[in-house]
Specification:
The chain has two helices and four strands. With 82 residues, the chain is an alpha+beta fold. A four-stranded mixed sheet has the order 3-2-1-4.
Length: 82
């Protein structure tokens, strides 16, 4: 599963995205969300990860590998700081 955040838009909202692919990289599911204005990109990226993992759970996907382009989020997850 890949997650990402983009924004903010002109009205201050962020777009969040999760894409779940199988082992052959074929898209199995995708979702997007908008969230209100937040000033910390790390929080927004963390929200994208949280929503993505909940989406994967709701879709009953097992054995998920999660990816993000946020180095701070990945380090926090590795260090169990989240």
């Amino acid at each position: 599963m890949n997650v990402d955040a983009a924004g903010p838009t002109e009205d201050g909202r962020w777009g969040l995205l999760a894409v779940i692919r199988d082992s052959n990289r074929v898209v199995m599911a995708a979702a997007c969300w908008f969230c209100p204005m937040l000033h910390d990109l790390d929080i927004v990226e963390g929200l994208a990860m949280s929503l993505g993992l909940n989406f994967a759970k709701d879709m009953i996907f097992l054995n998920i590998e999660a990816e993000s382009d946020s180095a701070n989020l990945i380090e926090a997850l590795k260090d169990n700081k989240v």
